Amino acid sequence: MRKKAIRILNLSTKQPNFSKEEKSSGFIYLGILYSKTKEFNLASDCFHQGLELMVYVNFNYHENFKKAIETFIKSEDFERANFWLNNLIQRQSYDNKFKKLGELEKKVK
C-alpha cells in the first residue's frame, strides 16, 4: 500500500491546479512514506521540496518537522538539516511550538 500511496502522492505534487500549501503537504507526506521504507535520501529530497515551497510563508508547527530534520540527519544531509532547523526554530517568533526543535541542535552540529 505504501508504494501505491507514494505513486499517488508523486502525481499529486505535479498537479498545476493544487495550491502551494497542498503541494508542500504532499511532499512532506511523501517524505514520511519514504522514511518508513528506509529510503532516506528520497525522503530528504521530498522534505526539502515541501519546506522550500513554504519558505516565505508562516505556517504552524507540526511534529512532522521533527521527522524531517531527523531524516536529513539519517541521510547525512547536514547542510539541509542545519538550514531547515535554523529556519524552523526562527519561526517561534509567531508559534512557540517551534522551540521543541531546539533539542535537535546537538544532533546536527
Automatic annotation (TrEMBL):
The lineage of its organism: Bacteria, Bacillati, Bacillota, Bacilli, Bacillales. This is Tetratricopeptide repeat protein.
